[in-house]
Design goal:
The model has no long low-confidence stretch (mean pLDDT 91). Helix 3 links the parallel strand 2 and strand 3. The termini are far apart. Helix 1 runs parallel beside helix 2. The protein has a domain of 183 residues: Rossmann fold (3-Layer(aba) Sandwich). It has a 7-stranded mixed beta sheet with strand order 3-2-1-4-5-7-6, sandwiched between helices. Helix content is 38%, strand content 24%. The chain is α/β, with parallel strands linked by helices. The protein contains 9 helices and 7 strands.
């Protein structure tokens, strides 16, 4: 794995950085899926368990099996739900899920697909794991369309000749690519939608520090010298039109869902 690969190994820091965003997008996504109670779910790339918890709060599943490659993220996830909740946390690669064929009703990836080195393989695993008539779905930040909550920082880094860190499969994050991946996987009734959300920060520095303190984005900032860092901060402030008071930032995710055909 490349030394500059984006890693998530601190559930609390990830929550500080992404929690406010993922909760909003996740709720809209779950409404869109329209999955009834008592379903058997796979949450692929569950991270710190935020989306898994939302599934239990909103969809009353029979059981959820949640996978992530990071033991640190899983350790945090295990603190989110009370004892007796029918959830199984499993350390595993999205490209090789340790589950039986056709044993689940729903398989989802929440803000994960662009981190999977081979998205086709990851989707094929979800398709394998759900029953005929089951749902396979995902949502991911519109990275190439500047929909990531901290896209302004990435744009500012690029303007300062500092290459922003990007997920390995960022090309999969567009609506067009998502549709093609789902159709190529043999899924039917494929639907797409864009989810737009907004969050308010106390001021620009609060937004900046949320990103800079993240273990995922910190290495990018640490590679900048003092002049570059000042230029990036000033540029990002200008891109967001930030003044001295509260700052509202918009983010956008692309969602896709499809059905595993019967017969």
């Amino acid at each position: 794995m490349a030394e500059d690969a984006i890693r998530f190994d601190d559930g609390a820091q990830y929550e500080e950085m992404m929690g406010r965003w993922s909760a909003q997008v996740g709720d809209i996504f779950l409404d869109w899926l329209q999955i009834g109670p008592a379903a058997r779910w796979l949450d692929v790339g569950c991270g710190n368990g935020a989306f898994t918890a939302r599934v239990f709060e909103r969809n009353a599943p029979a059981a959820v099996t949640a996978f992530d490659p990071s033991p640190e993220q899983l350790a945090y996830a295990r603190t989110r739900l009370p004892a007796g909740t029918p959830v199984t946390w499993v350390e595993a690669d999205a490209q090789a899920l340790p589950v039986e064929d056709a044993a689940h009703d729903v398989a989802i990836m929440a803000l994960v697909l662009f981190f999977v080195p081979d998205p086709r393989r990851g989707i094929a695993e979800m398709v394998r794991a759900v029953r005929a008539g089951g749902t396979v779905a995902a949502y991911h930040w519109d990275m190439l369309g500047h929909g990531f909550p901290f896209a302004a920082l990435g744009q500012a880094c690029k303007a300062a000749d500092a290459t922003p860190r990007m997920p390995p499969s960022v090309d999969a994050s567009t609506l067009e690519a998502s549709k093609a991946l789902w159709l190529d996987a043999g899924l039917t009734q494929v639907e797409l939608r864009t989810i737009t959300v907004e969050s308010e920060f106390r001021d620009f520095d609060s937004y900046w520090n949320t990103a800079r303190g993240s273990n995922a984005m910190r290495p990018m900032f640490n590679n900048l010298d003092a002049d570059q860092l000042a230029a990036v901060k000033s540029d990002a402030r200008a891109r967001l039109g930030a003044g001295d008071g509260a700052l509202r930032v918009t983010a956008r995710a692309n969602a896709v869902k499809g059905v595993k055909p019967r017969g």
